[in-house]
């Protein structure tokens, strides 16, 4: 029986699994990346523990960072992953994806119970042709999906490093937040809170969101965070013409992005002549665990 090997490579851990037809996962393993000198060494350890690579028909790897010329250089681990090296090791074609790109493909496996609608009309994934997926967690990332005939193609980005345009009433903070990721991330919420208070009280993003119902400074932080989120998502929706829906993933998105959906929605739609068009775009939060794993399981296979 043939199967696909998938690997989700993070800054701390690398996770592997085998995927069989019908999205059946088996032999899940996670290893500290620092334990190995390279991805290939980690892959060999997994193969040794799980019975080898016989029957592997393809490999799909998601990792944080841009993919260029079939390789990716990781930031937090001194690894370079090359499709050619993996193909030689596995004897099967390899597809290397940005981690958010992998999560974007995961959106295609969603059912109604796998997401919650934050604002706008309900999405119809059966008819969708263009989607935007944004990850708000340790950092910020975004990728789009485009349907051509019956095939979906992805377009990754480095949106977290775009210049950030703050709301007019927060313009004095501009120098402290030069890029999107400086505000839309876990540390970004803490930085926003410190900037609005005029001091750093050491609260985490989770604490700030939890305190927003009773602490004016936390409430102001969450509102500003929601406004920035909406504005950035609106810009990316226009850039990709992702009219069929925006899906948020990531730990911060789950914890805070839905806290002030009205502020987010207002900023999302505040795009001049395109405001009416943006009113028709759903914004939803993915609830499904491990969307990147599911995305890697169905991502198109590169051929030799």
Detailed description of the structure:
- This protein has eleven helices and 13 strands.
- By secondary structure, it is of the alpha/beta class.
- The protein has two domains: 3-105 and 291-298, Nucleotidyltransferase, domain 5 (2-Layer Sandwich); 111-287, Hexokinase, domain 1 (3-Layer(aba) Sandwich).
- The protein has a six-stranded mixed sheet with strand order 8-13-12-9-10-11, with helices on both faces. A five-stranded mixed sheet has the order 3-2-1-4-7, with helices on both faces. A two-stranded antiparallel sheet has the order 5-6.
- A hairpin with a 2-residue loop joins strand 10 (140-148) and strand 11 (151-156).
- It starts with a strand and ends in a 6-residue tail after the last helix.
In a nutshell, what does this entry contain?
The protein is of the alpha/beta class and 304 residues long. The protein has eleven helices and 13 strands. Strand 2 (13-20) and strand 3 (24-32) form a beta hairpin.
């Amino acid at each position: 029986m043939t199967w696909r090997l998938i690997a989700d490579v993070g800054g701390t851990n690398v996770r592997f699994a085998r995927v069989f037809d019908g999205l059946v996962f088996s032999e899940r393993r996670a290893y500290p990346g620092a334990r190995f000198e390279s991805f290939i060494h980690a892959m060999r350890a997994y193969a040794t523990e799980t019975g080898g690579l016989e029957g592997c028909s393809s490999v799909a790897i998601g990792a944080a960072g841009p993919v260029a010329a079939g390789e990716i250089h990781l930031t937090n681990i001194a690894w370079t992953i090359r499709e050619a090296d993996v193909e030689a090791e596995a004897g099967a074609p390899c597809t290397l994806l940005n981690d958010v790109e992998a999560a974007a493909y995961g959106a295609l496996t969603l059912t109604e119970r796998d997401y919650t609608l934050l604002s706008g009309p309900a999405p119809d994934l059966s008819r969708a042709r263009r989607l935007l997926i944004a990850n708000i967690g340790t950092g910020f990332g975004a990728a789009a999906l485009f349907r051509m005939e019956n095939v979906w193609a992805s377009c990754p980005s480095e949106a977290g490093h775009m210049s950030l345009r703050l709301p007019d009433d927060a313009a004095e903070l501009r120098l402290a937040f030069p890029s999107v990721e400086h505000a839309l991330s876990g540390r970004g919420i803490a930085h926003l809170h410190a900037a609005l208070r005029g001091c750093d009280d050491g609260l985490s993003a989770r604490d700030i969101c939890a305190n927003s119902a009773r602490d004016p400074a936390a409430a102001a932080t969450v509102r500003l965070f929601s406004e920035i989120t909406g504005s950035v998502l609106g810009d990316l929706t226009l850039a990709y013409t992702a009219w069929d829906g925006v899906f948020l993933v990531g730990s911060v998105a789950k914890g805070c992005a839905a806290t002030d959906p009205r502020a987010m929605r207002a900023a999302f739609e505040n795009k001049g002549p395109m405001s009416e068009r943006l009113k028709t775009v759903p914004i939803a939060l993915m609830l499904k665990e491990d969307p990147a794993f599911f995305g890697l399981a169905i991502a198109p296979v590169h051929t030799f």
